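HUMAN: I'm a chemist; might I ask for a sequence paired with its structure tokens?

ASSISTANT:
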Amino acid sequence: MSKASERIYNGIIKENPTLVLTLGMCPTLAVTTSAINGIGMGLSSLVVLALSNALISALRKFIPDGVRMPAYIVVVASLVTVVQFLMQAYTPSIYASLGIYIPLIVVNCIILGRAEAYASKNAIYPSFFDGIGMGLGFTAALTLLGAVRELIGSGTILSDGSKALVQIPEAVYSPASIFVLAPGAFIVLAFFIAIMNRIKRKHGMKPAEVPDYISEEKEEA
């Protein structure tokens, strides 16, 4: 397995930020009322993750340790501003749905965590693909959560308010509105975490596996 594919697999399965590391829970629980919202938040975070990892890796030898975190936040905030303007211009409906959670990507612990734990210690190439892997894992988790909550809570999938990819007639199914509220978010998230733990056990991995970069540091020491 190449370094790029290993980083992508790591982000989607081994260290999925939502279903394994349980990071970024605020946007995860807040925006996944629909699959479209999950896709929008996930892809915008993916772009910021990949580019911020690459930039921080490129600058890691020039950033003093004393101003490490402020420097990371400046890089991430600049990228988030660009993504925010692009979404406002080209996907205004998703931009309006996500609202304040787009600028809050700046302080998303997934992005700052990968910058500190991986990008600041590794070369540009693996850091870039680490960001892509984590972003894909985040996007997949948010999309699945949003799709399930939307289907059970509203009887639709990929609805933009006017039309939907899947629409269950009200005569066939009466939506359980609790699933588009906070309690439903916790219920569905717990269900998916349980499935992920089962998959990891089946493949001989611990549910809360020690991240690769921590294991590598211990071996080097």
